[in-house]
Amino acid sequence: MRFRNPEFFLFLLFWIPMIFVYVRRERKFRPAVRFSDLSMIKKMPVSFFVRARHILLVLRLAGTGLLVVALARPQEGRTDEEVSTEGVDIMLVLDISESMRALDFKPANRLAVAKETIKEFIHKRQHDRIGMVVFGARSFTKCPLTLDYSVLDQFIDGITFTSFSYQTAIGTAIATAANRLKDSPAKSKVMILLTDGANNAGEIPPVSAARAAHELGIKIYTIGVGKEGQVPMPVQMKNPFTGEVVEQVQMVQSDLDVSTLEEIATLTNGKFFRARNEESLKSVYDMIDKLEKTEIKTKIYTSYEERFYPWLWAGFFVLLLELLLQNSRFRRIP
User: Domain map of the chain by residue range?
Assistant: First the structure.
């Protein structure tokens, strides 16, 4: 609440002469009716109305105070906020090939850690449309661009290894994600590609797909996950005598194609990141989050409504009450 004309509060200074005149009059007042002997009257108890006679002054001050507040025009404001955003459209491209089963991101495998890290990244974004593409020997859209992050979380939770996880088609995955972004009206179109291997499937070379994405105005951040050299990989082995299938951990060679990922990022004005463990993977997504910020413009409008009527009516009522009491219960006999 605000007061449109606060200068009217200066009228409250008139309370000073009002109080001064009242006190002076009370001290000079002498009763007009004289008695020869006041001893009997002095023994009588003082009535409540005699003690409460000063309430007239209180009512007068309160009434005039309420009228002054009404003159100051109290107003109640309502604020409307208009937010305009220039969000970023982001396609998350995730490798679900068999090599993502590697356990160098202990205690979970690479895919499980990547899924949780991606979810954390999504929760930090606001006003951005985000989609998901997964790929192995072929790629498909797991979730189109959406602002409903809770639905996207559910899709990510459902990501697992499939029957086409035996190979890695990076070029096809880039083309699939670019197809989702090509008609986007967003000012910034971004692709975040996470993989731990080399392109060994699909008919589209990764570099050719990156050049096409660049022509569409898409920036690609590439993330190479996993340690170099030998990494632990769970492998299912079948006992030839009992037929029982058991899981064993064997050391296999990591085949990450760093040079291709760097070239993809360079061609599209993106950046290549290397993540060798869970902590470094989280820091990579944090850096990307800082690099791709959404522009938010806020306009605030405030409209005010008059609220002086209750004060005005209350002031009139209090002054009317003071006038009625002055000429009835608290009337003085001359």
Answer: 2-31+38-79+304-326, 88-293
Region of 217 on the Ramachandran plot (φ > 0 left; ψ -120 to 50 alpha; else beta): left
Q: What is 88-293's CATH number?
A: 3.40.50.410
Q: For 260-310, how does the pLDDT look when each residue is reduced to its tens digit (9 = 90+)?
A: 999 999 999 999 999 998 899 999 999 988 887 766 566 677 777 888 888
Please give the structure tokens belonging to residue 228.
């170099």
190: three-class secondary structure by DSSP: strand
Using a 10 angstrom Cβ sphere, with 0-12 exposed, 13-18 middle and 19 or more buried, the burial of residue 292 is middle
The residue among 27 and 98 whose pLDDT is bigger is: 98
pTM of the full predicted structure?
0.64
Cβ count near 68 (within 10 Å): 18
Distance CA 269, CA 183 (A): 20
